[in-house]
């Protein structure tokens, strides 16, 4: 029976620009060949461990979790080793070792550190730049090898047999020395790409990584193949020493790691007094309710109690307190914060904690759209700060909860279609003119793939066929397209952990003493850690600058959160479409929509923000006609009349869909949110289940079956276009604030826009033209000040 073995010295594309192997490709290969265990050992990182582990478990393949690391065996000598987790303790130590390599000791792991973390680890000496090879090349003394073999669970890797006499001589020497030192030997072929056809693509990746050309590597094609192994490869490489294969099976048997993906690890808010977190939350909310004169309103008290009970049941009290605390820090530090983002604006608790600035009852926003008691998931409160003050808040959080507990999140930039072609072309030595010729044939449109372009462009297909080099380049570019190219920092994500992060997450070096996680955002959430989004919003920076300038020029202090929402001058500006510089409202299409709708109240701004998207924008003329009573809107169905009154009978918001399901079919609002999600995901099976439930609930509520089906079809038809009203209301607040600033303080508004547009010539030209049309004279630069006169 042919041997179906596991390659230990295998790197994936998470070893950036060093492997073409993706985890799905790896697992598919092993499934196809019936291999029962898989291993990865990326260079110094564990970024792919969780996707690898999950994919293995789904495929009933045993995962071996490893990593290649450089170890400083002596003060003068370093070499590579493969570290594998024998058990969960070993996995925990791998996390620490990887973090140390990436944040503290990038040149290699000191031997004493490896000794401290050796519990649960199996060391495999690789066949390239390993300890044994270096000893045979007289780079390290035999005594060092003996010492390591005695102090660690140490295995010696043996390369496959080949036709090169020199290689086989080294192989024999490794086997002889290992036998003398009584060290177990195991097979360690090297794998870096999927199949032999990817050999050139792998060399190109290496050239991109090292900023070289293929011509600098004259013998790249002579490097032994490093493709994924088949039964035939094992037969040819190790037929002469069958005990090596037995040793490999024993090694695989030793490795037993189980990663718990079922737990959630929420941070705790520190409380100094005897209050419980729940009592503190309730006290804060009730105090705020009183201070804004809403304590005597029954609907607010009922909504508050309802939300707090759900927050307590779901275990999210500390989460809300943590967000309340850093928002309090922001206010006390004179940092402007956004009115809210996403569905969090639907929470009264968030409003009372001054996390958001939108009263959800006033605008008919639903808590279940944010936190659904029928679908347990982590809350997601995204916070906007001025882009130049975001780091101040992150630093505060890191200092409060401990820098070992807080990290920013990594994201990987990938080789998109055009980048794959250009990078490949550079390694092939193409001139700038030749690169431009290729680049011209590949659109820059996001999401475009090389295969898409190939199918759509006859010119490209002809160009590829012109030369062998063009065909080679195309094949390589398609192979490397989509692979990770570099690591960078996620624009918003922050992780706060109740324990030192390194216990569950490998780390990278970050900026400002705050590390980066090696795991991406989706992986962090899958292992139960809480992500918070701290977003830098340029428009808040503009409002902050305008506030300061208005104070200087008019001695007036503007509080953007207390503006009257019925300001006539602001609405006239919007009706004219005079919205250059106004958040979300300055595109040409949006100006036309404003000129058509002619907003007269805040709800019109919210509606136009929600409607101006592909699909629902077709409803804008109907909204305008019904608003101006050019077309009468009659709705005999009481529920629809009530729910759709503010949008003139048009379903604009997701919350309206939820309310219809709630009032017609007696869904709870949590169930109505599940219906909304089902419609957006377009799962035929789930939609059919929801249809039956909706129709039955409607019939039980007194509707005919025919009418119930009509209403369900109405929901399905419009749900895919429905917009999150909570988000629309919150972001329309920023739109209104900037429109108000432009209407009442046009010189200060324009001054700030010009100042912040320096370096953007097109933007400056547009603003200068607007200044001219508004009869604003711009004087020459005097010292460091620009003076504006009307």
TrEMBL record:
Q: Does the keyword Nucleotidyltransferase apply?
A: yes
| Cross-referenced Gene3D superfamilies | Bacterial DNA polymerase III alpha subunit, thumb domain, Metal-dependent hydrolases
Coiled coil regions in record: none
Where in the numbering of this chain does the Polymerase/histidinol phosphatase N-terminal domain appear? Answer: 8-73
Tell me the lineage of the source organism.
Bacteria, Bacillati, Bacillota, Bacilli, Bacillales
Entries under Pfam families matching the protein: DNA_pol3_alpha, DNA_pol3_finger, PHP
- What EC numbers are recorded for this enzyme? 2.7.7.7
- Enzyme class, broadest EC rank: transferase
Query: Which PANTHER family does the UniProt entry name for this protein?
Result: DNA POLYMERASE III SUBUNIT ALPHA
Protein name as annotated: DNA polymerase III subunit alpha
Give the Gene Ontology MF terms in alphabetical order.
Answer: 3'-5' exonuclease activity; DNA-directed DNA polymerase activity
């Amino acid at each position: 029976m042919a041997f179906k073995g596991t390659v230990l010295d295998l790197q994936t594309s998470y070893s950036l620009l060093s492997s073409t192997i993706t985890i799905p490709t790896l697992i598919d290969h092993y499934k196809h060949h019936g291999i029962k265990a898989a291993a990865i050992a990326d260079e110094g990182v564990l970024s792919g461990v969780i996707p690898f582990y999950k994919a293995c478990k789904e495929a009933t393949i045993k995962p071996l979790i490893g990593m290649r690391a450089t170890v400083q065996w002596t003060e003068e000598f370093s070499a590579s080793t493969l570290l594998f987790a024998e058990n969960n303790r070993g996995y925990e130590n791998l996390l620490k070792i990887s973090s140390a390599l990436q944040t503290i000791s990038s040149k290699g792991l000191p031997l004493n550190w490896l000794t401290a973390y050796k519990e649960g680890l199996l060391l495999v000496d690789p066949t390239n730049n390993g300890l044994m090879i270096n000893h045979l090349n007289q780079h390290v003394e035999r005594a060092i090898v003996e010492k390591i073999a005695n102090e660690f669970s140490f295995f010696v890797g043996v390369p496959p047999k080949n036709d090169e006499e020199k290689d086989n001589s080294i192989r024999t020497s490794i086997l002889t020395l290992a036998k003398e030192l009584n060290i177990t030997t195991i097979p360690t072929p090297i794998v870096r790409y999927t199949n032999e056809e990817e050999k050139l693509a792998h060399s190109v990746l290496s050239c991109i990584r090292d900023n070289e050309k293929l011509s600098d590597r004259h013998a790249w094609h002579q490097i032994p193949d490093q493709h994924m192994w088949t039964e035939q490869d094992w037969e040819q490489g190790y037929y002469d020493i069958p005990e090596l294969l037995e040793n490999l099976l024993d090694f695989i048997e030793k490795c037993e790691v189980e990663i718990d993906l079922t737990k959630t690890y929420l941070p705790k808010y520190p409380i100094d007094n005897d209050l419980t977190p729940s009592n503190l939350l309730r006290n804060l909310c009730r105090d705020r309710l009183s201070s804004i004169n809403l304590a005597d309103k029954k609907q607010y008290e009922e909504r508050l109690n309802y939300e707090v009970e759900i927050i307590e049941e779901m275990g999210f009290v500390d989460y809300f307190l943590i967000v309340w605390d850093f928002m309090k820090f922001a206010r006390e530090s004179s940092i402007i914060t956004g009115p809210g983002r996403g569905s969090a604006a639907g929470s009264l608790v968030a409003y009372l904690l001054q996390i958001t600035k939108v009263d959800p009852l006033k605008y008919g926003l639903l808590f279940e759209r944010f936190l659904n008691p029928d679908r347990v998931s982590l809350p997601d409160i995204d916070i906007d700060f001025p882009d130049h003050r975001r780091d101040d808040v992150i630093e505060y959080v890191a200092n409060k909860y401990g820098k070992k507990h807080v990290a920013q999140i990594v994201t990987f930039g990938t080789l998109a279609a055009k980048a794959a072609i250009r990078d490949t072309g550079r390694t092939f030595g193409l001139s700038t003119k030749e690169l431009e010729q290729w680049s011209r044939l590949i659109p820059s449109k996001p999401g475009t793939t090389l295969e898409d372009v190939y199918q759509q462009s006859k010119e490209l297909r002809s160009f590829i066929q012109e030369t062998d080099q063009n065909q080679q380049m195309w094949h390589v570019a398609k192979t490397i397209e989509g692979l990770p190219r570099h690591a960078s920092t996620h624009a918003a994500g922050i992780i706060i952990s109740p324990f030192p992060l390194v216990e569950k997450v490998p780390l990278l070096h970050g900026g400002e003493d705050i590390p980066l996680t090696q795991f991406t955002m989706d992986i962090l959430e899958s292992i139960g850690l809480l992500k918070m989004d701290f977003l830098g919003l340029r428009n808040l920076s503009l409002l902050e600058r305008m506030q300061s300038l208005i104070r200087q020029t008019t001695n007036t202090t503007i509080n953007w959160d207390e503006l009257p929402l019925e300001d006539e001058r602001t609405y006239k500006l919007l009706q004219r479409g005079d919205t250059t510089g106004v958040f979300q409202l300055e595109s040409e299409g949006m100006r036309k929509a404003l000129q058509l709708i002619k907003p007269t109240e805040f709800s019109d701004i919210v509606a136009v923000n929600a409607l101006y998207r592909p699909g629902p924008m077709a409803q804008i003329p109907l909204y305008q006609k019904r608003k101006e009573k050019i077309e009468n809107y009659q709705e005999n169905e009481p529920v629809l009349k009530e729910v759709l009154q503010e949008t003139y009978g048009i379903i604009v918001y997701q919350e309206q869909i939820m309310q219809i399901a709630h009032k017609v079919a007696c869904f709870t609002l949590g169930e109505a949110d599940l219906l909304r999600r089902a419609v957006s995901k377009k799962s035929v099976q789930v939609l059919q289940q929801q249809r039956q439930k909706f129709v039955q609930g409607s019939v039980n509520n007194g509707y005919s079956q025919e009418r119930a089906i009509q209403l369900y079809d109405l929901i399905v038809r419009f749900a895919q276009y429905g917009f999150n009203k909570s988000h629309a209301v919150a972001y329309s607040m920023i739109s209104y604030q900037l429109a108000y600033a432009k209407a009442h303080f046009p010189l200060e508004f324009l001054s700030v826009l010009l100042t912040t547009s320096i370096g953007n010539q097109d933007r400056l030209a547009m603003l200068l033209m607007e200044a001219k049309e508004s009869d604003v004279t711009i004087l020459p630069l005097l010292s460091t000040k620009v003076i504006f006169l009307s």
